């Protein structure tokens, strides 16, 4: 007897539909054959399924069982085929009527006693199920809230194989999992950090506000203990709240990797990733076999913070150049390629020299010029060109650290400026690929960053004096446009352009 069920498999962060076909025929010796490009985890599922069937009170067929996972040329990975294969075996052996099976797609891993276990990528599977016209999805209970985030899909949570059989046999009714998107945002979108905790550094806070307003990449240079890391960790608190679409985009990456926080089926805060400087190329941009997302994809719609930037391997940093420009990273292999989103803001921090005190007036620097050159030489010019703003973060004076007066600018105050500027950009780039000033194309730069003759003269002299590239020239204009938006100005004035040029002055001071 032949049984056919619908399921889905994960490929990178995307899900693909798969048909599970189970054929059971008489044979002298019981044998189970699994075909359809299964990996090791899928091949081993036959043993789990057999014991789960018996331990759930059903009879394992003593016949020849052929299980086909179609299409045959699509690699099948992970253990999410356990539940559909078990139901297919029971249906093919006449222990379960197949009528209701056609209405649902089924995913889930099984324990030996028949209980279901959490799988990876439930959100991507739910999204693809809707695209394929599937109206119902049966998942382990631990994945139900995650899958229920997707609209127009009836998500049925099951705790065990026996419960799934009872549901498909119409012996019990299981209420679909309700969607709690609004509740999840209210519960998980609160930040514990605040810029008010940072004493002093008001100039750095101004630069952080501008970077957040236009989605500009930012490099901070200063001695140890000046507050660079403290500032970077608070950057997500001034960014606008994730939209539902952005949240799903980001959540599906963590879901596919099995790294969603326990009890949190949806990410409501912008991700903040801070990898160690010993990270490999594949760990940063993605890779492996099969290809998996790296840190830049985990930072999608959020912040990637690279502390101690010159300590990173130069080759590792260089692989970020293309994703910084395109917002996606493509991992190519001989037979296929995978594309992962990587639209993030880069925040980097660096010391001005190996000892860190080159720019600190309170302590002397003992680094020799060759040491400093080797240290800063780890950061290439093309990579620095892709960083819109460079700022110096000096050490905070004792009086400001010990002051009992009111705190400095808070995250709420900074977020108001950011949201006002982003509303201007939303109108400016309505229905266009660019969403923020940092993403403006060259024609958009010429259209929205027109300069007066006085501003033209100022920019020309700065570019010639500092030896800036064409990319740096355009980035100055984009930052100037953001400064004007924050100040509520329709045009770029001289003070806006002068401030934007100031955020490139470290090109000359540190990296020559």
What do these coordinates show?
Helices cover 39% and strands 16% of the residues. The chain is α/β, with parallel strands linked by helices. The longest helix has 18 residues. Strand 8, helix 5 and strand 9 form a beta-alpha-beta unit. The strands form six sheets. The protein has a five-stranded parallel beta sheet. The chain has a four-stranded mixed beta sheet with strand order 1-2-4-3. It contains 23 helices and 18 strands. The mean pLDDT is 91.
Topology:
Elements (H helix, E strand, L loop, with lengths): L1 E10 L2 E12 L5 E5 L4 H4 L1 H11 L8 E7 L11 H11 L12 E2 L2 E2 L5 E2 L4 H10 L4 E5 H7 L6 E5 L2 H8 L12 H8 L13 H13 L3 E4 L6 H6 L10 H14 L14 E2 L7 H5 E2 L4 E2 L1 H4 L4 E4 L7 H5 L2 H6 L1 E5 L4 E5 L3 E6 L18 H8 L4 H5 L3 E4 L5 H5 L8 H18 L13 H7 L4 H14 L3 H17 L7 H9 L3 H4 L3
Parallel strand pairs: 3-4, 5-8, 8-9, 10-17, 10-18, 11-14, 14-17
Antiparallel strand pairs: 1-2, 2-4, 6-7, 12-13, 15-16
Helix pairs in contact: 2-3, 4-5, 8-18, 8-21, 20-22, 21-22
Could you write a compact summary of the structure shown?
The protein is an alpha/beta fold.
């Amino acid at each position: 007897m032949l049984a056919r069920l619908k399921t889905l498999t994960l490929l990178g962060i995307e899900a693909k539909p798969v048909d599970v076909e189970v054929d059971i025929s008489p044979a002298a010796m019981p044998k189970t054959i699994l075909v359809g490009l299964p990996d090791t985890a899928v091949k081993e599922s036959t043993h789990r399924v057999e014991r789960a069937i018996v331990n759930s009170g059903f009879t394992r067929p003593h016949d020849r069982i052929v299980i086909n996972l179609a299409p045959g040329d699509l690699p099948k990975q992970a253990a999410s085929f356990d539940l559909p294969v078990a139901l297919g075996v029971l249906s093919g052996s006449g222990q379960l009527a197949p009528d209701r099976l056609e209405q649902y797609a089924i995913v889930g891993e099984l324990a030996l006693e028949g209980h279901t276990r959490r799988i990876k990528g439930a959100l991507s599977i739910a999204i693809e199920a809707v695209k394929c016209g599937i109206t119902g999805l049966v998942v382990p209970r631990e994945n139900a809230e995650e899958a229920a985030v997707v609209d127009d899909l009836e998500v049925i949570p099951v705790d065990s194989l026996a419960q799934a059989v009872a549901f498909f046999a119409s012996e019990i009714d299981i209420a679909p999992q309700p969607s709690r998107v609004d509740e999840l945002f209210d519960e998980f979108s609160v930040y514990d950090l605040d810029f008010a905790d940072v004493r002093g550094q008001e100039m750095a806070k101004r630069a952080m506000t501008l970077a957040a307003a236009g989605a500009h990449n930012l490099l901070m240079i200063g001695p140890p203990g000046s507050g660079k890391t403290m500032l970077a960790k608070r950057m997500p608190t001034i960014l606008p709240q994730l939209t539902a679409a952005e949240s799903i985009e980001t959540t599906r990456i963590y879901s596919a990797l099995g790294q969603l926080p326990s009890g949190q089926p949806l990410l409501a805060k912008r991700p903040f990733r801070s990898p160690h400087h010993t990270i490999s190329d594949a760990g940063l941009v993605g890779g492996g076999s099969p290809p998996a997302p790296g840190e830049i994809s985990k930072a999608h719609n959020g912040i990637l913070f690279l502390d101690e930037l010159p300590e990173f391997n130069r080759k590792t940093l260089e692989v970020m150049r293309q994703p910084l420009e395109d917002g996606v990273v493509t991992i190519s292999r001989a037979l296929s390629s995978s594309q992962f989103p990587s639209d993030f803001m880069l925040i980097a921090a660096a010391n001005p020299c190996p000892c860190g005190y080159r720019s600190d007036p309170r302590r002397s620097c003992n680094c020799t010029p060759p040491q400093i050159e080797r240290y800063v030489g780890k950061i290439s010019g093309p990579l620095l060109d892709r960083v819109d703003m460079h700022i110096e973060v000096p050490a905070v004076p004792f009086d400001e650290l010990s002051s009992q007066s009111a705190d400095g600018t808070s995250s709420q105050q900074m977020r108001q400026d950011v949201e006002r500027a982003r509303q201007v950009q939303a109108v400016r780039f309505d229905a266009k690929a660019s969403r923020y000033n940092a993403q403006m194309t060259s024609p958009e730069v010429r259209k929205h960053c027109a300069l007066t003759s006085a501003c033209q003269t100022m920019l020309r002299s700065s570019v010639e004096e500092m030896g800036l590239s064409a990319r740096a020239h355009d980035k100055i204009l984009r930052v100037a446009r953001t400064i004007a938006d924050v100040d509520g100005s329709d045009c770029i004035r001289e003070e806006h352009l002068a401030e934007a040029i100031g955020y490139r002055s470290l090109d000359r001071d540190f990296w020559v």
